[in-house]
Amino acid sequence: MTARAARTGEDAEDSEDLDVEEVLALVNEAHGHPVGGHVPAPAPRAGRQEAARRPAPRHRATPWPEARATAARAAARTAHRAPVSVTLDDALGLTLAAPLSALTDLPSFDTSAMDGWAVAGPGPWAVRDEGVLAGHAEPDPLTDGEAVRIATGARIPLDTTAVLRSEHGRTDDKGHLHTTREMAHGQDIRPRGQECRSGDQLLPAGTLVTPAVLGLAAAAGYDTVTAVPRPRVEVLVLGDELLTEGRPHDGLIRDALGPMLPPWLRALGAEIVAVRRLGDDAKALHKALTASAADLIVTTGGTASGPVDHVHPTLRRIGAELLVDGVDVRPGHPMLLARTKEGQHLVGLPGNPLAAVSGLLTLAEPLLRALAARPAPEPYTLPLRDEVHGHPDDTRLIPVVLRGDSAVPLHYNGPAMLRGIAAADALAVVPPGGARPGQETELLDLPWATAGIGVCFT
């Protein structure tokens, strides 16, 4: 039993703030009725005795694939997020909100593709004394039989026939230049507009800004790009049992989610606007939710129905719409997704660390991806090297390492454990009933294990 499960009693001061409808809603939830439903009128005594012998109806959790799709759809239905103009220094990881069109020809003038000599007409050639360097003004034209030393990227003199590479030329005792091999007209000259002409579309809207995109934008003349803004995320860490430093003691445990979630969310494209530690304080949670201007609020713990689990009651109190209330996945079953107000959502993560990771990848990742207009990764599978025991009814997410063409399941994959995920490359999506050795299994990459933009944590 966890420290949270062992505690009893509700904050008396907070209980006084609940009205009759909220108290009824709590009773309703405790008896298995859907959140936000109504408690039926009391039945006759005989009827109540008969009802007591019947099992309470089980709350229906959302299947794992449906939960992920719901999170993506929820973000797509939010109010339009206005594009922003972002400097190239700040654009990495964003998504282009407008096509990137060339502001100039590339290259913008004829340039040398190699170090060597610019030559005019057939050789041998008389060589000028002064060479042509990159970044200098346009050089004087060449005449037939003339050559000039030229550097890579330098402007080609007018009437140049070709560029002779340094390793393909030699000079005689009289200072004349000779070629040591056949040379074609226009050789090693990059003509103006070879890559694009001014106005050409280079990249469409929806392109993820990678380092290469930044380089292309700069080459095409951009100082800023128009992009979809990063989703703003506020993290609320709940639980009186959490320590922020030192070793666990006296029933207190170290907070693992406070240090882990912000960089993980940044890797998913979010801007972290605040990390607040609220303890088990219903009033503080209510105040934080109603005051937040974030696009997404992420809470840790408090999503079950224990005496100090305040997330559900507070969501009812503020009139939030529950979109996902529990998911058929292990670990992480008591995760939730709610629309708290127009343009704002809340993802409630379980308090156990690996269960929270499951909630992060199930609900927060697809929602943030849709808010940021990031393209969805192509799904892929690999065979499992070893057998994985499954849950009879629910999907399981198991940390794995990738070895060659297979995925190797890791130990230490319990809901409260981080030892497995800390060594993992991905999470394997194990269907109900488990998976046998060699069975193809869907994988969810972890941000730091991919070769893409996800490795950027700041």
UniProtKB/TrEMBL annotation:
GO BP, sorted A to Z: Mo-molybdopterin cofactor biosynthetic process
Catalytic activity: adenylyl-molybdopterin + molybdate = Mo-molybdopterin + AMP + H(+)
Domain of life, per lineage: Bacteria
GO cellular component: cytosol
Cofactor: Mg(2+)
Location of the MoaB/Mog domain: 234-370
Pfam families reported in the protein's UniProt record: MoCF_biosynth, MoeA_C, MoeA_N
Keyword tags: Magnesium, Metal-binding, Molybdenum, Molybdenum cofactor biosynthesis, Transferase
Record-linked CDD domains: MoeA (cd00887)
EC number per UniProt: 2.10.1.1
Function: Catalyzes the insertion of molybdate into adenylated molybdopterin with the concomitant release of AMP.
Name under which the protein is recorded: Molybdopterin molybdenumtransferase
Provenance organism: Streptomyces resistomycificus
